[in-house]
User: What shape does this take?
Amino acid sequence: MNNLNEDYGHELEILFNQLNPLIYQYILANLRTSLSSIGFSQNFITNLSDNLKKKNFNDFYDKFNSELKSVYDIGFFQEKVPEYFNKEVVPHIPMSNKLLDVGCGTGILLHTISNNPKFNLLTGIDIKEYPEWQKFKKSNIEYLVVQENESHKFIKKQKPDNVVLSWVLHHMDNDEQIKYLKILYSELPPKAKIIILEDSYSTIRIPETGADIHESFMKWNTAERRLIMSIYDWIANRLLARRKTVPMPFSYRSLEGWESLCEKIGFKITYSGFIGFPDKRDINTPQSILVIEK
Ligand SMILES: C[S@@+](CC[C@H](N)C(=O)[O-])C[C@H]1O[C@@H](n2cnc3c(N)ncnc32)[C@H](O)[C@@H]1O
Assistant: This one.
């Protein structure tokens, strides 16, 4: 992945053609603080910004391969993200005989809770396999590839008690989001809960964390905020996590938007929180959590 235009021409066109210098400066300034908060060196951050401007990452990955592995793949995803999940997500997951993590990615959430006596069998599904599955596999965890067209059959057969969707729904297009939520509504037992962690902000509430970042973020209009969140997300997934195939339709909704969609499908909202802009994140994108019940 050297010349970004060759690898991601279409996505870059969608994102970077809408950018103006003010938004770009805002994004770079925020990236500087967020990336240094998780331990990246100034040299890494400067190089990333310069290469992004040129849309060319010749030599970047050779030069910073070991920093990416130690600071991001391990330090962020295997240390800081589990801390974040333990604080913001795990307390909302009810005791479960069978817990399903849809779009589990590396499987780090299930790995994080694998010794928690609240849970029995942990199943993670994703549309692609991750190398970490081999490392995190245990007698009470299974990771499986389940494509979109097999998901209904799978969920019907697996019959989970509760489900987690963490940072997944905005990787599905709008129709797919509705399709998955409807499948879950039809197949889960009564009182089952779904815990949704999303890149999402409230249009009416104040955030629990990061009031200053929130203030600067909310100065942009709705379309600009969406663009800022999309570019952060693109940088995190494509450049930092080096995930070439994760779908990126940038289909965010506000917290209120998620609430009304879930209620329309039939779910009851049992918890809804605008986490805001927590510390020690790779990107300063807004965070919300929603717990819905069948
Ligand atoms: C940003 S990652 C989040 C991974 C993980 N949940 C976490 O919290 O670290 C989004 C994941 O959603 C997966 N995904 C996208 N569409 C999906 C679908 N239709 N079914 C299952 N997984 C999907 C992607 O492959 C990717 O692994």
